[in-house]
Amino acid sequence: MPEISSVAVIGMGYVGLPTALGLHAGGVRVLGIDRDPDRLAAIRRRAVDLIDADHLRLAKSLGQDGFELTADLSRLAEADAVMVCVPTPVDRYLLPDLGPLQGACDTLVKYARPGQTLILTSTSFVGTTARMLVNPLIDRGFTIGTDIFVASSPERIDPGNVTHTQRETPRVLGGVTAQCTAMAAQVIEVLASQTHRVRSPEVAEMTKLYENTFRAVNIALANEFADICAGLELDPIEVIDAAATKPYGFMAFHPGPGVGGHCIPCDPHYLLWQLRETRTAAPLVNQAMTAIAERPKTVVDRVQGALSLAGKGMAGIRVLVVGVSYKPGVLDVRSSSALEIIAGLAERGAKVDYFDPLIARVTLPDGTTMDSVVRPQGTNWDLVLVHTVQPGHDYGWTADCPMLVDATYRFESADASQPV
């Protein structure tokens, strides 16, 4: 079996960059490819959002041979293997935006050469590998499994998570043929300590969709139980912690202001979109994704309810939203519910500011921009809404605010009597 000693990684984002660093740390020559020169410049300046261990890897890799960054897509042919690590977002109508992935795959097929191993890591619908790589390669005259090798191994990177690292998280791998799987395993086993091989790319693709749909359904359930607990004047976190003492049959999920980032708000919609073609019903998944999409509005309703209990209306109320990244510890506002919540509060007449020590500026859905408050004081606002609590920062000033609504359900200074 030919040895793979060099890998090109298409896409130097939240998946591609840690993937490239992991490969280089494992002794593989890496060519990191991204069409955005600003992104490449930021990587060279080390001005990127990574966990501390990967920041150290980046500093080391930039000073060594065998780690190169480029915007030249034609250089794909130089590598023994190529990994596709581009985003798969949804549009404003929650339909898959396949443009980035299709463009990357079209380019890869164009420059593919005999002997290469091509691995799709982006999350997408079942059959993506076949449609975007296998069939076009066959049309070019390649024989899959003989003169070129194709596999799917969906990424499992959790940005900002230092507990479940890429190396320690098993990877699912499915090749078109047994030889495709064996060739791709040379690459994936550098990145992950365990590899779970499945019979086809389609199984690997569905596995990733199932993983994130599972999370989406359970988050929607946790949010619903938080609403139920509020009506019964119970603390939902106390209930969850109690249920989590059961050593089997229960997994703790926590309520919040909404979900964001690259996975949960997007991936299940790839499944739902594909099921329209097969006319397969998925009512549970569909309802969960509807509930997730409506969660920001529920939070705005909660703020309005808290004000109503205090005999106040929304118009002219000064509101400070605390934290706008989609999760703690990351510099990422993609699909963050905070942006919808800010817009929703403003639409109802509130005067809204935000404070996030990690995010200096955000762009709202209507295109307007906002800058973070620099040194907040609780007395400057009528109400503080806690959306994301960034680790290592002092929020003691929130105690001086007349009203505080905790959308995280775990902020120590929150008034537990506030309605959901």
How is this structure best described in words?
With 420 residues, the chain is of the alpha/beta class. It has eleven helices and 14 strands. The protein has helices at 16-25, 37-44, 52-62, 99-111, 128-139, 178-191, 201-231, 236-243, 267-278, 283-309, 337-347, and strands at 6-10, 29-33, 67-70, 81-84, 117-120, 149-152, 171-175, 195-198, 318-322, 351-355, 361-363, 369-371, 383-386, 404-406. The strands form three sheets. The chain has an eight-stranded mixed sheet, sandwiched between helices. A four-stranded parallel sheet has the order 10-9-13-14, covered by helices on one side.
Largest sheet: 8 strands, mixed
Helix content: 25-40%
Identify low-pLDDT runs.
414-420
Give the domain tally.
2
The CATH architecture designation of the largest domain is 3-Layer(aba) Sandwich
Taking all Cα atoms into account, the compactness measure Rg is 23 Å
Could you spell the SSE succession in H and E letters? EHEHHEEHEHEEHEHHHHEHEEEEE
Structural class per helix/strand content?
Answer: alpha/beta
Q: Which CATH top level class of the largest domain fits?
A: Alpha Beta
Organism: Kibdelosporangium persicum
Protein name: Nucleotide sugar dehydrogenase
InterPro entries: 6-PGluconate_DH-like_C_sf, NAD(P)-bd_dom_sf, UDP-Glc/GDP-Man, UDP-Glc/GDP-Man_DH_C, UDP-Glc/GDP-Man_DH_C_sf, UDP-Glc/GDP-Man_DH_dimer, UDP-Glc/GDP-Man_DH_N, UDP_ManNAc/GlcNAc_DH
Pfam family, one: UDPG_MGDP_dh
